[in-house]
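Anyone up for a design puzzle?
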């Protein structure tokens, strides 16, 4: 794992100005955040810096203002939510550089926290403009990145600042990088990966990367239908990308050569309509799917066998549900396998790392989110990491 500096590498920071990149892009309902998970994630870093006497300036984006000011996309919209989570007062600063920021720093006492406005109000942010980064950096003594979820973007506040100021990973970023390293960087083998979701097309790079890195690749969700079709199975009217069957076969060949076992369902739960508990729901062998039926979940026998596979593994990476988990009874496979993984993790025999929006929702639905070793709330960044891509925001910290 590439080495990077953490808050442990900071000396005395009393009176120093910390520029801290956080993710405050919160979902809003009626003027308040409907979910403050992202604030909870960065709370330890912010409070540690403040309690060590630094003046903490928070940098964040909110929505997609495309380089222009929008009153509804000001970070002042989330100021109250951040104050509630931190249980501290925060000064809102309607700029990211210049005299207003300078004056505000003069007003802040050691240990105080300021919230700068939406960095994306300035075109230099998404352009990763070096002069823009220098303008922000002029106000800070050091830079802390605690926004893994924005680490796949090479923007001024996620990547550029790390080249201008001494750069450190915040506590959430540090935790994330250590977990990801344990999952795919230097994992304990054998490693299993669960990859689900609707379409192969959105996960091609993930699958290509994983077959060379894991010993067991478990494919679920709608994408399993494409692999089954590639193997000559008639999947009826299931969601299936028939134009990608050659690609699916190529991935399976690559897995063969790499010594990776691809696990596809051999029994499935099918129905004639996609609705809750439809009268036509049944479980059958994959070769018995009728022309007017659709595969909506992995069957119980396959799930039991997959649970046995996990028992032989030391590490698990999970991205995407096994079936159409939003509707019963098509959540059975996801819930059952997630509970097996959680139990093995709690026993200490499995390191389990999961990530991606649907995945977090599915594990919460199964009631096991707390029992996994680590759950990443980052969507795009987690996916790009699974694709084996270097994340600019992370690479800049290790430069």
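Challenge accepted. My sequence:
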């Amino acid at each position: 794992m590439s080495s990077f500096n953490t808050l442990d590498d900071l000396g005395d920071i009393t009176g120093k100005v910390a520029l801290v990149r956080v993710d405050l892009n919160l979902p809003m309902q009626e003027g308040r955040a409907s979910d403050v998970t992202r604030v909870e994630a960065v709370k330890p870093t912010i409070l540690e810096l403040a309690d060590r006497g630094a003046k903490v300036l928070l940098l964040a984006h909110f929505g997609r203002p495309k380089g222009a000011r929008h009153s509804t996309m000001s970070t002042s919209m989330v100021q109250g939510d951040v104050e509630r989570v931190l249980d501290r007062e925060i000064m809102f600063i309607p700029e990211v550089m210049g005299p207003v920021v300078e004056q505000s720093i003069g007003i802040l006492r050691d240990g105080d926290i300021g919230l700068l406005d939406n960095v994306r109000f300035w075109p230099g942010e998404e352009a990763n403009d070096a002069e823009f980064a220098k303008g922000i950096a002029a106000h800070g003594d050091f830079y802390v990145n605690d926004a893994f979820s924005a680490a796949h973007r090479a923007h001024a506040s996620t990547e550029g600042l790390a080249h201008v100021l001494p750069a450190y990973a915040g506590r959430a970023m540090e935790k994330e990088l250590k977990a990801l390293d344990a999952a795919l960087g230097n994992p304990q083998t054998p490693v299993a990966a669960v990859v689900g979701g609707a379409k192969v097309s959105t996960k091609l790079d993930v699958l290509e990367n994983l077959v060379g890195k894991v010993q067991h690749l478990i494919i679920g969700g709608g994408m399993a239908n494409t692999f089954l079709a590639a193997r000559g199975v008639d999947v009826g009217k299931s969601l299936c990308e028939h134009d990608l069957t050659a690609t699916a076969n190529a991935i399976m060949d690559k897995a063969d050569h790499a010594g990776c076992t691809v696990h596809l369902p051999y029994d499935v739960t099918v129905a004639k309509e996609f609705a809750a508990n439809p009268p036509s729901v049944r479980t059958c062998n994959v070769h018995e799917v009728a022309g007017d039926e659709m595969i909506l979940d992995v069957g119980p026998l396959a799930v039991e066998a997959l649970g046995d596979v996990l028992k032989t593994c030391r590490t698990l990476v999970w991205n995407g549900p096994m079936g159409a988990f939003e509707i019963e009874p098509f959540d059975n496979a996801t819930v059952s396998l997630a509970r097996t993984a959680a139990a093995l993790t709690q026993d200490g025999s499995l390191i389990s790392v999961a990530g991606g929006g649907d995945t977090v929702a599915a594990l919460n639905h199964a009631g096991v989110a707390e029992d996994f070793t680590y759950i990443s709330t980052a969507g795009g960044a987690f996916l790009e990491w699974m694709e084996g891509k270097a994340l600019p925001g992370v690479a800049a910290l290790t430069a």
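A detail worth pointing out: The CA atoms of residues 137 and 201 lie 40 Å apart.
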